[in-house]
């Protein structure tokens, strides 16, 4: 490690969103403490280039917070606005919130966007973009994908149905293209200018298998051609596939991460690309660790890949005792600092860490 | 309805000094008397003229309570008691009483001797002030006077810190001072019972903070010490006698053992003397683990930590030294600092806040050239680090305390109002209590619903419970009686008994109303008409026609007479007692409407 900061939230969070102005947003869902959305200012120590181990300002500050009636599992900031959108189980609509940090420290609920979600346990996955006007792409299942204009709540796009599988995540690749990842591993590409054409980018065998998948995309440039950035898929068995969307007939690379088996389910599977390091990605959700890989050395053999770094802090951090070891619920990369990540676990811990590159590379 | 005023001549959106005035059921209590550490002039003291425009403070205030020895809670106390003038009791815990004068004297020395200030309290004033102090134990109910009582609860935070409950009759206020809800290496966590005060005044300095874990901070501390010692440097840690020093010693001792380090660690002898003096106080205030450790061995029998001798400072090679005083403003720690400051391999780690004017404060602010006595310039090349292990409650801790105490209202001090709106909402939503955040100098009024205990006579109780449906243990039952207030006792008795006790005769109030009715017939015929009319309408009531020609409706009497001047008009006299007022009024208005023609 170059640096490791560990914090404890009042309750565990399943999401970490980085926002402009160096803000970090989490949503804690505690049984007795209620559901809160917290926008945090990281400690100044994290912002500076040099390490200042004993700097007095080492704490996260809660800049503003909001209280939600239902648990919040998914949250996205709406770019170029002071709004954010959340979704969670037991709530069949999306909540839109206003953050006005200068005036008050309360995140206010301003409106709701109805979705067609009916099932209690699943919730809409969301992605936002503000190319034309602020939009939110949402859906819990493949046949329930829509794009809604955030302010007017008008529906601007409904994806053609190609099945009813549950979605793990979805993303805007650019202002016209969206990518959907089903829990089965199926990837579908959509173009909002052609709602009827929902293309299957990666298909899956018909035989049902218990493996579940999620995907990670790089933050695409807005309104550019279909990016050449590969899409990463991660399965609950630790399989990693990299796909170039322009050529989906074969995988760019295939590797296997060393993960404990049997796995602990796919609820917290998370794979993400480093915004500043070419080819680097991180995975989590199998246990109390976060792995960082350099995918540039991978081929299509499906061999086991050696992680560049493994963050084990969450596994050791807890109060100990007989309770289940903590499970990392989510991780994300710092937007500016290239080797800094944030991760959270089921015991309420929140870590910010920066690793040292093993000798050889810079 | 009683009022609890809460107003902060110091605290309340003003981080830096605490001084709160509470008025509860006619008693006035001052909570803490702190000094603002950022100012150099009179602004550092609270403005006591707010309290009473004329009249002596001693008469106005019933007592002063100090929560702990930090200067932003007790720093203005000698100024208040000796220069402004207060002779009443000052309450604090035993450790606070022992440690306060030392810190106050230290602070006085720096301000007067080093900075040459004149409007400041003297050493004698500190001594005179402490003579007015009454020390209290934890959970001991102290009667300030016949009506006012206070009780201290463990607050964690620092040695001797306490939360205080102030009670007058059945109204109470709990003031937390600074507290901490998670135990650390040498202090336990704050605790209070479900005392249900009308108001909980809580500090909220760290309410919007998510603190990094102690483990992390300790790891960094050890890393820095280790790195310095590995490269042959010396580490100076200025400490106050007790408290954090113990914690750091234990930490280093364990680390040295684990890593098999050989560099010597020293604890200066000045500390040993003071430490033994506080030893007894410390023991009851620390947590279980420490108590066990100290029972097994003398506090200074660490394997790797030895007593320091002045001469050791010149020894070559790495070492770690704990020395007093904590802010590097005088004494041994300053001496050692001067010797080691010029070498960049060395390090000084400041474990806490340093008052302005001290060397500690200067180097933490970044100054690297210091002017010493005799105009000598000291160049500071050694590394300067700051570390704070002082613990305050965060949002989670505040919610925990509220859950423990179950107050009816909450008041937050010590933060900026704009940034506490979220916490205020959280508290109001979760506990359904009102949450206040006054600004400095603002008066907050909190309405309470006091419970007034009243003795009820057994006879009355038996009688009242016999009336109506069976009493339900879970529902309140309405009872009627007469309340007798004598001196400070309240009794509920039956009206008859009340009259007897007071030697009063019972009076009956009877109303009579005249209703004129046009009816040329004879009186007894009119009466019959009235009777039939009323019988027809008032089916649920007992309407009777008596042989003497009068009508009764329940206990109301109606009689008819002829008008003295006009034979065609009959006068009905309707008469009822006070108890039957409602029915009586109703009957009267009914009769005023006249009799129906068809009635025979």
UniProtKB/TrEMBL annotation, chain A:
UniProt protein name: WDR73 protein
Species classification: Eukaryota, Metazoa, Chordata, Craniata, Vertebrata
InterPro entries: WD40/YVTN_repeat-like_dom_sf (IPR015943), WD40_repeat_dom_sf (IPR036322), WD40_rpt (IPR001680), Wdr73 (IPR042795)
GO CC aspect terms: cytosol; spindle pole
GO BP field: cytoplasmic microtubule organization
Gene: Wdr73
From TrEMBL, chain B:
Keyword Glycoprotein: no
Entries under InterPro entries matching the protein: Beta_Casp (IPR022712), INTS11-like_MBL-fold (IPR041897), IntS11_C (IPR048662), MBL (IPR050698), Metallo-B-lactamas (IPR001279), RibonucZ/Hydroxyglut_hydro (IPR036866), RMMBL (IPR011108)
GO MF term list: hydrolase activity; metal ion binding; RNA endonuclease activity
Keyword Metal-binding: yes
Superkingdom, natural source: Eukaryota
Domain Beta-Casp: start-end pairs: 245-363
Entry cofactors: Zn(2+)
Main localization, broad class: cytoplasm
GO cellular component: cytoplasm; nucleus
Keywords noted in UniProt: Cytoplasm, Hydrolase, Metal-binding, Nucleus, Zinc
Residue stretches making up the Metallo-beta-lactamase domain: 16-233
GO biological process, one term: snRNA processing
Protein location: Cytoplasm; Nucleus
Family that this chain belongs to: Belongs to the metallo-beta-lactamase superfamily. RNA-metabolizing metallo-beta-lactamase-like family. INTS11 subfamily.
Protein name (record): Integrator complex subunit 11
Species this protein is from: Chloropsis cyanopogon
Originating gene: Ints11
């Amino acid at each position: 490690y170059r640096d490791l900061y560990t914090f404890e939230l009042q309750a565990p969070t399943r999401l970490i969103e980085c926002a402009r102005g160096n803000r970090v947003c989490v949503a804690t869902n505690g049984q007795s403490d209620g559901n809160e959305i917290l926008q945090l200012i990281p400690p100044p120590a994290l912002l500076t280039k040099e390490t200042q181990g004993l700097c007095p300002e080492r704490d996260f500050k809660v800049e503003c917070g909001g209280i939600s009636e239902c648990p919040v599992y998914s949250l996205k900031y709406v770019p170029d606005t002071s709004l954010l959108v959340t979704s969670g189980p037991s709530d069949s609509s999306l909540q839109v919130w206003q953050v006005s940090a200068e005036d008050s420290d309360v995140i206010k609920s301003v409106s709701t966007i109805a979705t067609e979600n009916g099932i209690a346990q699943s919730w809409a996955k969301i992605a936002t973009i503000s190319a034309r006007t602020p939009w939110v792409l949402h859906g819990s299942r493949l046949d329930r994908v829509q794009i809604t204009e955030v302010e007017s709540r008008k529906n601007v796009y409904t994806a053609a149905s190609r099945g009813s599988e549950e979605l793990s995540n979805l993303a805007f690749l650019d202002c016209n293209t969206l990518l959907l990842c089903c829990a089965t591993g199926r990837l579908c590409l959509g173009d909002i200018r052609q709602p009827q054409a929902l293309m299957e980018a990666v298909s899956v065998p018909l035989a049902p298998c218990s493996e579940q998948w999620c995907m990670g995309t790089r933050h695409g440039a807005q309104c550019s051609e279909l990016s050449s950035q590969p899409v990463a898929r991660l399965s609950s068995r630790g399989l990693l596939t990299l796909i170039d969307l322009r050529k989906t007939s074969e995988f760019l690379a295939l590797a296997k991460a060393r993960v404990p088996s049997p796995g602990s389910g796919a609820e917290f599977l998370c794979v993400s690309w480093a915004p500043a390091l070419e080819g680097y990605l991180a995975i989590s959700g199998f246990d109390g660790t976060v792995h960082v890989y350099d995918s540039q050395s991978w081929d299509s053999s499906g061999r086991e890949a050696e992680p560049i770094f493994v963050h084990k802090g969450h596994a050791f951090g807890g109060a100990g005792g007989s309770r289940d070891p903590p499970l990392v619920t989510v991780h994300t990369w710092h937007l500016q600092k290239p080797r800094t990540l944030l991760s959270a676990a089921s015991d309420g811990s929140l870590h910010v860490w920066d690793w040292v590159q093993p000798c050889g590379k810079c | 309805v009683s009022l609890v005023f809460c107003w902060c001549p110091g605290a309340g959106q003003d981080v830096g000094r605490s001084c709160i005035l509470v008025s509860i059921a006619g008693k006035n209590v001052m909570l803490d008397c702190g000094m603002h550490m950022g100012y150099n002039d009179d602004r550092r003291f609270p403005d006591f003229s707010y309290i009473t425009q004329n009249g002596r403070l001693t008469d106005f205030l019933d007592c002063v309570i100090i929560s702990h020895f930090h200067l932003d809670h007790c720093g203005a106390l000698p100024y208040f008691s000796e220069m402004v003038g207060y002779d009443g009791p000052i309450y604090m815990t035993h450790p606070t009483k022992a440690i306060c004068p030392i810190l106050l004297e230290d602070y006085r020395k720096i301000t007067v001797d080093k900075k040459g200030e004149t409007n400041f309290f003297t050493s004698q004033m500190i001594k005179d002030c402490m003579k007015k102090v009454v020390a209290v134990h934890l959970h001991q109910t102290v009667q300030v006077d016949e009506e006012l009582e206070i009780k201290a609860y463990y607050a964690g935070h620092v040695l001797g810190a306490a939360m205080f409950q102030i009670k007058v009759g059945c109204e109470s206020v709990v003031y937390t001072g600074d507290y901490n809800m998670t135990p650390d290496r040498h202090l336990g966590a704050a605790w209070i019972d479900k005392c249900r005060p009308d108001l909980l005044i809580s500090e909220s300095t760290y309410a919007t903070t998510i603190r990094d874990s102690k483990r992390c901070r300790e790891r960094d501390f050890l890393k820095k010490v280790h790195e310095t010692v590995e490269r042959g440097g010396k580490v100076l840690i200025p400490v106050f006698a007790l408290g954090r020093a113990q914690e750091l010693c234990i930490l280093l001792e364990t680390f040295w053992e684990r890593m098999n380090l050989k560099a010597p660690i020293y604890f200066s002898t000045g500390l040993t003397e003071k430490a033994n003096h506080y030893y007894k106080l410390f023991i009851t205030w620390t947590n279980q683990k420490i108590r066990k450790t100290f029972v097994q061995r003398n506090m200074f029998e660490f394997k790797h930590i030895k007593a320091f001798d002045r001469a050791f400072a010149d020894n070559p090679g790495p070492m770690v030294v704990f020395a007093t005083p904590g802010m590097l403003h005088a004494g041994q720690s300053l001496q050692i600092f001067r010797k080691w400051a010029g070498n960049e391999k060395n390090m000084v780690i400041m474990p806490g806040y340093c008052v302005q004017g001290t060397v500690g404060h200067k180097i933490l602010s970044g100054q690297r050239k210091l002017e010493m006595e005799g105009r000598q310039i000291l160049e500071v090349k050694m590394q300067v680090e700051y570390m704070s292990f002082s613990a305050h409650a965060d949002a989670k801790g505040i919610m925990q305390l509220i859950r423990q105490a179950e107050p009816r209202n909450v008041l937050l001090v010590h933060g900026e109002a704009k940034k506490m709106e979220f916490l205020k909402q959280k508290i109001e939503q979760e506990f359904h209590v009102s949450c206040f955040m006054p600004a400095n100098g603002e008066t907050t009024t909190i309405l309470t619903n006091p419970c007034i205990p009243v003795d009820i006579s057994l006879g009355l109780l038996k009688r009242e419970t016999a009336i109506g449906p069976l009493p339900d243990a879970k529902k309140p039952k309405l009872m009627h009686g007469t309340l007798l207030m004598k001196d400070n006792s309240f009794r509920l008795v039956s009206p008859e008994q009340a009259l007897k006790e007071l030697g009063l005769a019972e009076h009956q109030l009877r109303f009579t109303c005249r209703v004129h009715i046009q009816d040329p017939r004879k009186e007894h015929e009119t009466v019959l008409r009235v009777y039939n009319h009323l019988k027809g309408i008032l089916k649920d009531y007992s309407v009777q026609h008596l042989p003497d020609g009068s009508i009764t409706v329940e206990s109301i009497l109606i009689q008819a007479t002829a008008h003295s001047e006009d034979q065609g008009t009959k006068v009905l006299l309707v008469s009822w007692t006070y108890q039957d007022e409602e029915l009586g009024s109703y009957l009267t208005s009914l009769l005023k409407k006249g009799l129906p023609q068809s009635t025979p």
